[in-house]
């Protein structure tokens, strides 16, 4: 007996290389499942990413080391298409430009772009979101920038709506099992390691993963094991929020 199966691999819609490179802020639709606004601590601002304002500045500051764990090319054309495909067209993804200053007592007009951070895999149904696509430009590495950007995003995800947050139940952190710096950052911020998903994702050509490809389709592409950690709302309210706030209060 045969069974009917008309499935065919969808043909991707071509994305113009310069898509939204000229779209002004007022006309750029973030297309995100939760409300969108600027997020702030006393040392950073997380501004929703606008390609026409941020893409070229970000691209000019990138280097190959920053992209070791990310499937992104050092070309502005690739960046515009990537933002459209991976963020704007996916309602579960919202990217932010991180703005800050190395001045110990800055005013917002002294802020400059320091990197990016995303709220990704956001789910209304499951009441959770993930921190991801974090890139810190070289000038701002080993400063307050990552702590404040991640801490501010954790507040947005886990704080109650009356405190300016989304009141979600889970904030998670996924990373390549070989990315020791990312794992250390998550643990420092109070995330709890939950486990490792083996052979979890097939990586682009040239990217490093824990496992070689299997003979057959995509055999030249490695797989990564994914290291998973999280903070849930009871942990946040039970001490992790205070821990993060103490980290952010350091000078």
Shape: globular
What is the CA-atom radius of gyration, in angstroms?
19 Å
Might you state the CATH topology name?
Aminopeptidase
Kindly provide the name of the CATH class: Alpha Beta
What structural class results from the helix and strand content?
Answer: alpha+beta
GO molecular function, one term: protein-N-terminal-alanine acetyltransferase activity
Region (Disordered): 1-21
Pfam families: Acetyltransf_3
Protein name: N-acetyltransferase domain-containing protein
Summarize it:
This protein has five helices and eight strands, in the order E-E-H-H-E-E-E-H-E-H-E-E-H. It has 251 residues and is of the alpha+beta class. A hairpin with a 3-residue loop joins strand 1 (39-40) and strand 2.
Topology of this structure?
Layout: E1 39-40, E2 44-48, H1 51-61, H2 76-88, E3 94-100, E4 112-123, E5 128-136, H3 145-158, E6 170-176, H4 180-188, E7 192-202, E8 223-232, H5 233-249
Parallel strand pairs: 5-6
Antiparallel strand pairs: 1-2, 2-3, 3-4, 4-5, 6-8, 7-8
Mind explaining what this structure looks like?
With 251 residues, the protein is an alpha+beta fold. It has one domain: Gcn5-related N-acetyltransferase (GNAT) (Aminopeptidase, 3-Layer(aba) Sandwich), CATH 3.40.630. It contains 5 helices and 8 strands. It has an 8-stranded mixed sheet with strand order 1-2-3-4-5-6-8-7, sandwiched between helices. β1 and β2 form a beta hairpin. The mean pLDDT is 95.
């Amino acid at each position: 007996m045969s069974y009917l199966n008309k499935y065919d691999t969808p043909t991707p819609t071509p994305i113009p290389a310069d898509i939204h490179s000229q779209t002004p802020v007022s006309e750029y639709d973030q297309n995100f499942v939760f409300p969108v606004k600027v997020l702030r601590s006393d040392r950073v601002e997380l501004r929703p990413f606008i390609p026409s304002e941020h893409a070229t500045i970000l691209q000019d500051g990138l280097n190959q080391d920053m992209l070791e764990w990310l499937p992104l090319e050092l070309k502005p054309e690739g960046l515009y298409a990537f933002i459209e495909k991976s963020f704007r067209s996916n309602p579960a993804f919202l990217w932010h430009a991180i703005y800050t200053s190395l001045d110990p007592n800055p005013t917002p007009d002294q802020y400059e772009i320091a990197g990016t951070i995303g709220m990704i895999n956001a789910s209304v149904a499951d009441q959770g979101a993930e921190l991801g696509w974090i890139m810190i430009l070289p000038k701002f590495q080993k400063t307050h920038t990552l702590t404040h950007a991640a801490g501010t995003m954790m507040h947005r995800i886990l704080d109650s709506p009356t405190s300016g947050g989304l009141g979600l139940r889970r904030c998670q952190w996924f990373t390549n099992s070989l990315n020791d710096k990312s794992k250390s950052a998550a643990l420092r911020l109070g995330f709890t390691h939950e486990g490792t998903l083996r052979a979890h994702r097939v990586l682009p050509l040239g990217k490093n993963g824990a496992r070689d490809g299997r003979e057959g389709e995509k055999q030249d592409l490695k797989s990564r094991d994914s290291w998973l950690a999280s903070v849930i709302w009871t942990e946040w309210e039970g001490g992790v929020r205070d821990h993060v706030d103490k980290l952010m209060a350091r000078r």
